[in-house]
Amino acid sequence: PSSDFKSLLSASTGTDVSEIVFDDLDVSTYSHFMLVWFSQPKTDDAYLYMQMRTGAGSGANFTTTAYDSAIIGTSADGSIYSNHTINGNHWRLHQNCGNNAVEYHQTQIFFTPYKSGNQAYLGNFIRGQGTRYDSGGAYRTEVVCGGYNHSDYPSATGFRIYYHSGDINKYNYKLYGIV
Questions:
Q1: What is the mean pLDDT of residues 78-85?
Q2: Residue from 72, 70, 73, 71 nearest 87 by CA
C-alpha cells in the first residue's frame, strides 16, 4: 500500500548551512528512511558525512567511534578506487567533490535505525549509491555501505548530514519513511 512508503520532508535552498539535521523521525512507524540528496559544498574538495542522533528534537549527535563505512567508486577512465573506514565517529557517504557550478554530490541513502526490541546489532546501518563531480570536474559514481559496531547500539531518532570541512553551500533533499 502507498502508506508503506511516505514522503516526510523536503527542502531546497542556496543559503549556507553547517549541517542538515533530521530529528524526531517516527521510528515506531517506519523501519527505514530513504534520503534523496543533492548538495554542493562551500569549501572545495569536501567529503560528505553522516552521523546518527539520539534524544529527539533536543537530541545530540552520536559521536562514539564505532562507525564503519566503505565506499567503492569508478572514475571517468573506468579505474576503481575505494575507501574503508573502521571505528570512525561518522559514516563517510561520499568522497570529495568540488564547489564550482557543475561540481556537487547527488545520492540516495537508505538508513535503518536500531529499534528497541530488535536483536543486538540489527539496525543502525546505511547503504546507498550516488555520483559526484570532483574539484577538477571529473565525474565519479560510488556505492557506500556502513554499520555501527558497538555494544551500546543506540536507538537513533534522527541523523545529520554535513561536510567534513566548511558549510553546505546549496542543497535539495527529499526524505521518505518506509514501513
A1: 96
A2: 70
AA letter at 53: R
Please name the helix (run of DSSP H) or strand (run of DSSP E) that holds residue 101, with its range, or none.
none
Q: What is the pLDDT of residue 164?
A: 97
- Cα gap 80→93, rounded to integer Å: 17
Beta-ladder partners of 100: none
What contacts 29, CB < 8 A, 6 or more positions away? 177, 179
Cell of 42: 562551500
Of 14, 74, 61, 33, nearest to 162 (Cα)?
61
Distance CA 88, CA 8 (A): 29
Task: Round to whole Å and give the CA distance between 150 and 138.
Answer: 37
Higher pLDDT, 76 or 176: 176
Instruction: Give rounded-to-5 percent helix, strand, coil for the chain.
Output: 5, 60, 40
Instruction: Identify the CA nearest to 67 among candidates 142, 153, 130, 129.
Output: 153
Whole-model pTM?
A: 0.95
